Amino acid sequence: MDRRELWLWLMNLPHIFSPKVGPLLERLGDIEGIYCAAEQQLRGIRGIGEAEIASLLDKDLSRARQIAAQIEGLGAYVLCYDDASYPDALRHLYDPPYVLYVRGERLNWDDMLPIAVVGARESTEYGRQVTDEICYDLAKSGVTVVSGMARGIDSVAHRSALRAGAKTVAFLGCGIDIVYPPENDTLMQAIAQNGAAMTEFPPGTPPYGKNFPIRNRLIAAFSRGVLVVEAKQRSGTASTAHWALENGKDVFAVPGDVTRENSKGCHHLIKSGGAKLAECAQDILEEYEYDLGHMDLPESGRPVIVEKRERPAARSRRPGREEKRVEKKKPSLDDERFAQLDEAQKKIIALLIERDAHVDEICRHASLSAAEAGAALTLMELMGLVTALAGKIYTLNV
Predict the structure, then answer these.
(1) Fewest CB atoms within 10 Å of the CB: 95, 216, 292, 375?
(2) Which of 13-27, 33-47, 311-325 is predicted with the least confidence, judged by mean pLDDT?
(3) How far is residue 194 CA from its own chain's centroid?
(4) Residues 247-259: what's their mean pLDDT?
(5) What is the CATH number of domain 1-73?
(6) Which InterPro entries does the entry link to (predicted)?
(7) CA 93/CA 248 separation, integer angstroms
């Protein structure tokens, strides 16, 4: 029997949820034992009543096979609780997700230093700027930035990690076939190409409000620490921080404007001693110096010491008379920011170093299909390397 099909069968049965699976495994041993169990074997198991028994006695695998085919069609894959590659941090949850639907790379989850960055959907310019700076520096130092791909702070966190040329992980509150919010379709594609998006909700599950607290527990459990940027005292962001504290994870919070509701959650965490105040990436990195020092990172991902940045006051973009025009230096393909690109992306960069180019010319130059070129350019846009101009023209950001 195909174990994955059996897990998909179990986790898509009516009345069967994660908290009920633990007692089944304790009594019946493994997923094969659960599938083969007769009615008498199911009786007397904690939390398993008549409704659950009726579901478990339905051995039809057609729904499981349909989901498996759907996942394959999406270019995604399934991670099961008893897989060797299942994230160890989630395995030790009280009610772990026994099936994870993943769109993206097959990563070594236990060989990374994941830090979650969460915050308000209705974020301020200050919150977005601080998130961008901290996440970029964390990613450059070897940290894997984790978030929920929501509007506001979450989206900035993912984009900043991608801009740093690093991998990022998103936990979703809906099915893997649904992009929520819809405007993050491009971001979802980029995360799948350079990291992973995952969910415990089966394909087709809408982004119901009740799903997000469930999603938040995975963000907290998967990560070594959680950084909170802008949060109301009672909010989904605050619930993620509380999940982290309950599970013994490090919590960090960025101070904000004392007059704003979105600062009260962070300030409460700091004042209560639940969170360490974080003004820059170094405030977080210093907690993990040993871990980063023992990680197998490429040279470009070696830990860096990040100094606190002075944020200059805004000034007019209009050049003064005393300012002189500075000739921009032509970039080289050997620049460090291009080091982690694949060969196709480097071919695109080589062309754009010489001149701006239409997407059709890019396809011909890099020997890519339109879809492949679009995917590569999307990721490079998120990394801050290129900009799309009118008429499908792309230019290199110098």
Answers:
(1) 95
(2) 311-325
(3) 10
(4) 92
(5) 1.10.150
(6) DprA, DprA_WH, DrpA_SLOG, WH-like_DNA-bd_sf
(7) 12
Comparing CA positions, the residue from 151, 117, 132, 121 lying closest to residue 244 is 117
Phi, psi angles (nearest 5°) of residue 143:
-80, 140
Query: Are the CB atoms for 116 and 223 separated by under 8 Å?
Result: yes
- Residue-wise pLDDT for 207-233, tens only, equals 999 999 999 999 999 999 999 999 888
Q: Where are the beta strands (DSSP E) in 141-255?
A: 143-147, 168-171, 195-199, 225-229, 250-254
> Encoding tokens for residue 398?
């110098």
- Report the CATH number of the 109-301 domain: 3.40.50.450
Q: Can you tell me the mean pLDDT for 59-64?
A: 97
Secondary structure of residue 342 in the 3-state scheme: coil
Binned at pLDDT 50, 70 and 90, residue 305 comes out as very low
Topology of domain 336-396, per CATH? Arc Repressor Mutant, subunit A (1.10.10)
Q: Token pair for residue 119?
A: 């915050």
DSSP class of 389 = E
Assign 382 a pLDDT band (cuts: 50, 70, 90). confident
Burial class (CB in 10 A: 0-12, 13-18, 19+), 135: buried
Task: Kindly write down the DSSP assignment for every residue of 263-330, as one continuous string.
Answer: HHHHHHHHHTTSSEE-SSHHHHHGGGHHHHHTS---GGGS----PPPP-PPP--SSPPTT----PPPP
- Strand 113-119 to strand 143-147: parallel, antiparallel, or no bridges (unpaired)? parallel
Q: Is the pLDDT of residue 9 over 70?
A: yes
Q: Which 8-state DSSP code applies to residue 43? A: T
Instruction: Give the whole-angstrom CA distance, residue 228 versus residue 268.
Output: 11
- What are 159-198's pLDDT values in tens digits? 999 999 999 999 999 999 999 999 999 999 999 999 999 9
3-class SS at 145?
A: strand
Residue 278 has pLDDT above 90, yes or no: yes
d(CA 300, CA 314): 31
Residue written as token pair 């978030």: 147
| pTM for this model (two decimals) | 0.79
Q: Are domains 1-73 and 109-301 of this chain identical in fold? A: no
Q: Mean pLDDT throughout 263-281?
A: 93
Rounded Cα gap, residues 158 and 164, in angstroms: 10
277 bridge partner residues: 253
